[in-house]
Amino acid sequence: MEVCIGICTYKRPEIRLTLESISAQVIPKDVTITIVVADNDETACAREYIEGLALELKLTLKYIHAPKRNISIARNACLDHTTSPIFLTIDDDQVASNNWLSLMLKKLETENADVVFGPVNAIYQDHTPKWILNNDFHSHKPVFINNEIQTGYTGNTLINLSKTDGLRFNLDYGRTGGEDTDFFYKMYESGAKLVFEPMAIVEEPVPENRLTKKWILKRKLRMGQSFGQLNLDDNRGLSKFKCFIISLSKLTYCFALCLLHFFDNDKFHFWLMRGTFHLGVNLKSLGLNHIENY
């Protein structure tokens, strides 16, 4: 069985560690791996470096130049050039555990699933503020709603493309983020089964610039905007007015708890970030544009 792993990259030499972790996978003898790397840089200056890594690590790899700094273009390029309907995604700064692929494939089969998510465990620097460490703001797991996963992320995911009916990532989210949330929610709405494999771990080092309150606030705001857009786009979704009222009540509740826990640094920041998420939902209900990340 052939599987394809898609990686979107943008000026990250750390992709070496990602490719090394793929090369080190312990997989069944009947499984072969092909990698598609979509470079979102305006120039193809990383081609020689990435293709050189593939030769060094004895990996079957296809380099695709997907410029214009729109992450959806890069993600769609990976889908367009995949060599197998069994398609995995991993970020260019993540390192997979050596049984990552085999666990994801096993979960796909045993659960008869269409999408499998694995956890992303953040690796923090020694000087990381304690409120970030204790709240673990940079790790990722899918959210369960009524015992179901309704959407997710592309960093550590397996997708059975035969169940996507040609679905692609929305270009409108390509500079703001949220394209993955939109993609998987559309799969869920079409009847796809989304599951979680907690042991298929990838690790992601957290860079210096993400260890600030400003960066996390901006990210939570953007996530809230994406969630708000899903609610408004959903055929069963909320009206703008109802979305506004619900999100306003939630952000008011969260910010009230911020004040209540003002002297507890961990809880204060937890509720601050939660409230900022709902602020993003609220702003989207008012028609405000997404924050650009890319």
Word description of this protein:
It is a single chain. The chain is 41% helix and 17% strand. It is an alpha/beta fold and 294 residues long. It has two domains: 2-207, Spore Coat Polysaccharide Biosynthesis Protein SpsA, Chain A (Alpha-Beta Complex), CATH 3.90.550.10; 213-285. It has a seven-stranded mixed beta sheet with strand order 3-2-1-4-10-6-11. A hairpin with a 2-residue loop joins strand 8 and strand 9. Helix 1 (15-23) packs parallel to helix 2, helix 7 (213-233) packs parallel to helix 9 (265-285) and helix 8 (240-260) packs antiparallel against helix 9 (265-285).
Please supply descriptive tags for the structure shown above.
294 residues, alpha/beta, Spore Coat Polysaccharide Biosynthesis Protein SpsA, Chain A, seven-stranded mixed sheet, three-stranded mixed sheet, 41% helix, 17% strand, globular, Glyco_trans_2-like, hexosyltransferase activity, transferase
Compile the SSE list and pairings.
Layout: E1 2-9, H1 15-23, E2 32-39, H2 47-57, E3 60-65, H3 71-80, E4 86-89, E5 95-96, H4 100-110, E6 115-117, E7 120-123, H5 130-135, E8 144-145, E9 148-149, E10 157-160, H6 179-189, E11 194-196, E12 202-205, H7 213-233, H8 240-260, H9 265-285
Parallel strand pairs: 1-2, 1-4, 2-3, 6-11, 7-12
Antiparallel strand pairs: 4-10, 5-12, 6-10, 8-9
InterPro entries: Glyco_trans_2-like, Nucleotide-diphossugar_trans
GO molecular function: hexosyltransferase activity
Protein name: Glycosyltransferase family 2 protein
